[in-house]
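Quick question: what would this complex look like in 3D?
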Amino acid sequence: MQEVLKQLAVCIERGKTNRDSKYPADLAGTDGAAELTQSALNQNISPWDILNLALLPAMQSVGEKFRDSKIFIPEVLIASRAMNASMEILKPYFISGELKLKGKIILGTVTGDLHDIGKNLLKMVLEGGGWEVIDLGVDVKVEKFVEAVKNNPARFVGLSALLTTTMLNMKEIVAGLKKEFPGLLIVIGGAPVNQSFADEINADAYFPDPAGMLHYVDSKYLNGEL
Amino acid sequence: MNSGKPVLIKQFKFKFQENELFITIKDTIELLGYTAESVPETIKEVVEELFEKIPGLIDASAGFVSFSQSSIVIKNDKFIIDGVSFECKPIIANQLSNADSLILFASTIGPSAEALCKKCFDEGDSLKGFTADLIFSELAERTVDLLEMKIDELVSAENLHITNRFSPGYCGWSVTDQQKLFSFFPDKFLGIVLTESSLMIPVKSVSGVIGIGKNVKKESYNCSLCELDFCYKRKHQSNKTE
């Protein structure tokens, strides 16, 4: 792999957004993700290679470290910020169709619940993993989820809830979505839920952290199950 | 107000000065998962920056309404105040069962907290938004802790005790009862309004009930009292012991 891609992967993983970023201290004053992405393009490295050989593997490594408790949420956010800086440079290639995201994922906090921090973190991690996220926001009713899937054909929907009372609304949303879209895969998350609850309401999966969901959707993508 | 009967309403303002936030930079760093030695410098800087800003953004206030024995009925799965029934389920009703009077309370840290978090996320600074949300959640808990201490002081003077505080949305008590609870407060009490789904805005607010009496006591939180398999507190306890 070209040196610039190796350096780029290091910048993503360690959260070095651009040359002006002071963090990490040992990389102060050196090019960051934004400059290295541009530099790679200038060296005629294809946007596909930049994405698939540097950016996505780096974010995958970040997700794995988080899953293994080697790093914590703040470092995931810093890495995601660096990833977004690179994606901004690659944006014209997504618009032209030369680069494609892996697919669409619809996310929302369920009816009655206004908590969005967990969902926002998941969104950043999924976007960092090369997925397009349609974020429906908070207090999302089943009708809005159904309409979103109709308007944005997607294989995955993620439901979030923070309260023991609002998590019960997941059942109606899962049933409503499954009735309209039997092949849809529905993932749930949030402090009060667990795998047993996912089984009970007929959701397809539960993950306690964003890295788990990213791994799940990536596995489906790699197995050609989209 | 729901009832024409006289009730005691008390309201408090709490000022959180810099260095008196009841949560320290060290606490916050630990909540984020680090120690003072392991925290990356950039994350420490974000925490320090927020600690300079946050005292000016907090408008912490709290208040309560109290109801004497003649206005309340406590059954095995509900409590009734002035004829209004709160379906709090047995876990809470059991803890309140020996209370001679009840207090309905609310507290908030005001609207600026979520405005700052939203601004950070909208501007793409999710690290700051996430960290701010964490600090604000702690301050919301500290505010209601301060209210509970005030109530404890007041009732201790009369040789009475308090139960734990219980909130709609937890221990099986439906969050929709928040509508009934707020019907006992003046309109827009402390600036809090309820959404159609009965959640409070500002989000960093807490409401609930506390029992008072000679024969009640605060219990340390015990998951074995509760039948909710999916409660986050149970999961948290189990993670701690693994």
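Answer marked as accepted. Residues 73-96 of chain A form the longest helix (24 residues).
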